[in-house]
Specification:
Layout (H helix, E strand, L loop, with lengths): L21 E5 L4 E5 L5 H16 L5 E12 L2 E10 L3 E8 L1
Antiparallel strand pairs: 1-2, 3-4, 4-5
Length: 97
C-alpha cells in the first residue's frame, strides 16, 4: 500500500481558513474582483499587489511595478501604482469590485 489509510478527519463546527481566493476578471473593463474577500485590508492589499505585479511583469517591456497606494470602499478598492518600462514610467490605477 502506497498511501496508508489514516481514516477521515473528525467533524468540527469550525469554519475552514480562507487560504485560497478566486479572482474574477471582467475582460471588457479589466476590473478584478476578489471572491471570498477577507475582512483584513492588509491581506487584500497584499493579494492585489502580488497579482498586479505578476501580471504586468509578464510583458518584457515592463521592468517594474512600484509605489502602490490603496483606497478601500465597501464595494471594492482603487489601487494606484507606478509602472516602469524600458522607455519611461507612468502612473495608473485599477478598480476592483
Amino acid at each position: 500500500m502506497i498511501f496508508p489509510d489514516w481514516g477521515t478527519a473528525p467533524e468540527t463546527n469550525e469554519s475552514p481558513l480562507p487560504l485560497f481566493r478566486e479572482w474574477a476578471v471582467d475582460w471588457e473593463s479589466g476590473a478584478l474582483a476578489l471572491r471570498g474577500r477577507s475582512g483584513d485590508a492588509g491581506i487584500r492589499e497584499s493579494l492585489l499587489k502580488r497579482t498586479i505585479t505578476e501580471t504586468l511583469l509578464v510583458c518584457p517591456y515592463i521592468t517594474g511595478v512600484e509605489g502602490f497606494s490603496f483606497e478601500h470602499r465597501a464595494d471594492g478598492a482603487t489601487v494606484r501604482f507606478t509602472v516602469k518600462t524600458v522607455y519611461n514610467s507612468f502612473e495608473t490605477e485599477a478598480e476592483t469590485a
